[in-house]
């Protein structure tokens, strides 16, 4: 007897050990939670009917410094996959190494930009050399986890949505993509290779989007021998600072999945199933620290209305999996203009999907019975009984998210002032001087968000004027003669176009006396971009700080510039081991709204078990650490930005005008008996307003599961 390959596929499905398998998968990115959270995430995933966990691999985090690898703690990919296996879950590994994913540089290490003659994601030898070196190393590392070696990994992805940039690189891009596929084959993984949205021969091409059924016909025409796999079903969306929180209803997510399976899809992966947190400085440009994504499991890893509503659907799909997978894709039977029935039937079983694609309710006949189909819904009818209605959420499934302040948690608040460049002791002046400003990343190597730019500004008489930074990114805080004077207008744009365009010019109205002034600009990077389209150039061109020039009204500032990468407090590790090296001041009532302040807040571990966050509503912008570990960037800028129009009627805006992100996740695992929360506050705020809160989900409230209140 021939032993079937561990994983293979045919036109209908992925086969695992020779068995057609319906893939119900959820994305959980291991660096976006802590290892102590993983078992519970896996348990809940299994309980909600997933049989697979998908993760990207984060090259940017595993190899932060060239040649220095880290697979410890949150980066313990091996343990993460082993845990999935222990919980009876398969794994889809999306290796990239370009992964997009709202992570710094789309998953590519920032040191790559310093490789001579490199261009990313096209037929460029320096890039391909580095990529191949990493991919071979990684695959050797995880090889025992491949299904072909008895492990849980059933599919591997290389590259990511090449289609989005294919036009930019033309034939060279296609040549690169073929090389990627050949690299994939040469790794001898013994499992199928997938490529999403843009594939080369040798890989299964998969789909991404809010809905995938509209892509099915084309997919079948392009790839008649491949199953329909949806690698990214977006159950919500990511948030960016300055824009509203994004939500998608559980009903619409369920509709999308049921509609896809009805029409013949046999693999779906929720991107994200658990979004988690962008710790440290790992978030891409503008991306909030929370990567909650309005995913079925919330940022703290708790279930939501969405996970419960989907769990019911999964259960039914698994019950009928065999029936679904053993037949050709059924032809739709029209029930109305935008209403269809898809039936899967054998001698013993039948499952019909009644689909209403219209934005209005409709009705149809099922045998003699008249059935109401809510707007945008799918009803699953099994052997004559309505088993599930995507538009109806069981009231008992409704969960609401709450933040309960922990009383009197904070016991001590102290501060230390980050000096302006001119106030730094001579011995700590690591300034670079040049006749022109020098681009920031070439100085910081992305090891800090910060860089000071200082020069002299001379005014002749004008009281009011405009300081313009031409060729600048991302946020500038302007100090004149040691005093805070202005900051960048918000919201910033996610897609800024070319470096010559208006999005890279910022202007500040200042009122200055005649004479010479000391101008110090604190440039704050808010993460690296994730794709070429964000700057209309190859990602390698990414820039921060001031690379152009500054103007006072119409006069270019011609004096010498002095650049100081990083903060003194960062260099001295005030958030951790270096804290004891300086004298922290007790907070007094005058100490509010002071820019450039390091704050330390001491608090005891809360008595209760559970998930905790810190409410930073009274602060403005900076970085935060818990017991020496960076919990991420914070920014309380109001969500005044317009939502993207292409997501209309799918993604809804919540929290308009309030800060995009107010609550910041404090992982349980990082809490101790006595804790120190350190903030570097760039602009000022009142640390007395900071509160520790417990995150809870309340069951069965009267809350109606609409897009306004579901979590
Ligand atoms: C996709 C991409 C993912 C992620 C997602 C949005 O296009 O493949 O990596 O960026 O969009 O969250």
UniProtKB/TrEMBL annotation:
EC number: 3.2.1.23
Biological process (GO), any one: carbohydrate metabolic process
Occurrences of domain Beta-galactosidase galactose-binding (ranges): 597-674
Keyword flag DNA damage: no
Chain ranges of the Glycoside hydrolase 35 catalytic domain: 14-315
A Pfam short name: BetaGal_gal-bd
InterPro entries named in the record: BetaGal_gal-bd (IPR048913), Galactose-bd-like_sf (IPR008979), GH (IPR017853), Gly_Hdrlase_35_cat (IPR031330), Glyco_hydro_35_CS (IPR019801), Glycoside_Hdrlase_35 (IPR001944)
Gene Ontology molecular functions: beta-galactosidase activity
Catalysed reactions, as listed in the record: Hydrolysis of terminal non-reducing beta-D-galactose residues in beta-D-galactosides
Highest taxon of the lineage: Bacteria
Keywords linked to the UniProt accession: Glycosidase, Hydrolase, Signal
Family recorded in the similarity comment: Belongs to the glycosyl hydrolase 35 family.
Protein name, UniProt field: Beta-galactosidase
The organism of origin for this protein: Dictyobacter aurantiacus
């Amino acid at each position: 007897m021939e032993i079937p390959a561990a994983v293979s596929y045919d036109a209908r499905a992925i086969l695992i050990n020779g068995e057609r398998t319906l893939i119900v998968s959820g994305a959980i990115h291991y660096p976006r939670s802590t290892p102590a959270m993983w078992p519970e995430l896996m348990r809940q995933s299994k309980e909600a009917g997933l049989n697979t966990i998908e993760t990207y691999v984060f090259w940017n985090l595993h190899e932060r410094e060239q040649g220095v690898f880290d697979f410890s703690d949150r980066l313990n990919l091996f343990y993460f996959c082993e845990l999935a296996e222990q919980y009876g879950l398969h794994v889809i590994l999306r290796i990239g190494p370009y992964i997009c994913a709202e992570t710094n540089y789309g998953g590519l290490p920032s040191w790559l930009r310093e490789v001579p003659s490199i261009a990313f994601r096209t037929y460029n030898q320096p890039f391909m050399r580095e990529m191949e070196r990493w991919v071979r190393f990684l695959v050797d590392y995880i090889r025992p986890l491949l299904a072909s070696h008895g492990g849980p990994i059933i599919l591997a992805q290389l590259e990511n949505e090449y289609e989005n940039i294919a036009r930019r690189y033309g034939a060279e891009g296609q040549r690169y993509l073929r090389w990627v596929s050949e690299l994939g084959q040469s790794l001898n993984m013994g499992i199928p290779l997938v490529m999403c949205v843009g594939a080369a021969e040798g890989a299964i091409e998969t789909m991404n989007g809010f809905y995938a059924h509209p892509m099915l016909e084309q997919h079948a025409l392009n790839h008649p021998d491949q199953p329909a796999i949806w690698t990214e079903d977006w159950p919500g969306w990511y948030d960016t600072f300055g824009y509203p929180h994004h939500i998608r209803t559980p009903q619409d997510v369920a509709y999308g999945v049921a509609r896809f399976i009805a029409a013949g899809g046999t693999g779906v992966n929720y991107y994200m199933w658990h979004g988690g947190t962008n710790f440290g400085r790992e978030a891409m440009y503008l991306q909030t620290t929370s990567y909650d994504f309005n995913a079925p499991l919330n940022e703290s890893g708790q279930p939501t209305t969405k996970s419960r509503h989907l769990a019911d659907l999964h259960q039914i799909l698994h019950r009928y999996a065999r029936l679904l997978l053993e037949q050709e894709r059924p032809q739709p039977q029209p029930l109305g203009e935008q209403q269809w029935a898809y039936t899967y039937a054998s001698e013993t079983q039948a499952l019909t999907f009644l689909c209403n694609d219209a934005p209005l309710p409709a009705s149809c006949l099922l045998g003699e019975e008249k059935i109401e189909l809510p707007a945008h819904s799918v009803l699953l009818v099994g052997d004559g009984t309505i088993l599930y209605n995507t538009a109806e959420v069981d009231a008992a499934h409704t969960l609401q998210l709450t933040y309960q302040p922990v009383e009197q948690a904070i016991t001590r608040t102290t501060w230390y002032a980050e000096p302006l460049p001119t106030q730094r002791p001579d011995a700590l002046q690591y300034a670079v001087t040049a006749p022109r400003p020098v681009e920031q990343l070439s100085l910081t190597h992305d090891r800090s968000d910060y860089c000071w730019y200082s020069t002299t500004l001379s005014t002749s008489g004008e009281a009011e004027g405009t300081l313009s930074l031409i060729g600048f990114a991302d946020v500038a805080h302007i100090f004149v003669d040691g005093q805070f004077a202005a900051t960048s207008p918000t919201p910033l744009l996610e897609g800024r176009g070319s470096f010559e365009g208006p999005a890279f010019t910022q202007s500040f109205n200042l009122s200055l006396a005649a004479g010479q002034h000391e101008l110090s600009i604190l440039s704050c990077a808010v993460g690296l971009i994730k794709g070429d389209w964000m700057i209309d150039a190859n990602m390698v061109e990414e820039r921060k700080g001031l690379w152009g020039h500054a103007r006072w009204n119409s006069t270019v500032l011609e004096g010498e510039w002095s650049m100081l990468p990083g903060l003194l407090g960062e260099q001295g590790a005030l958030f951790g081991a270096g804290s004891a090296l300086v004298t922290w001041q007790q907070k007094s009532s005058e100490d509010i709204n002071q820019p450039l302040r390091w704050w330390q807040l001491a608090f005891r571990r809360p008595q209760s078990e559970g998930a905790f966050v810190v409410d930073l509503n009274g602060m403005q912008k900076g970085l935060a650490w818990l017991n020496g570990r960076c919990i991420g960037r914070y920014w309380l800028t109001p969500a005044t930005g317009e939502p993207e129009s292409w997501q209309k009627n799918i993604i809804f805006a919540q929290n308009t005008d309030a800060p995009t992100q107010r609550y910041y996740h404090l992982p349980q695992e990082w809490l101790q008996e006595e804790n120190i929360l350190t903030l570097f506050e760039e602009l000022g705020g009142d640390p007395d307003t900071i509160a520790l809160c417990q995150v809870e989900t309340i069951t069965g409230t009267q809350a109606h599961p609409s897009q306004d209140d579901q979590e």
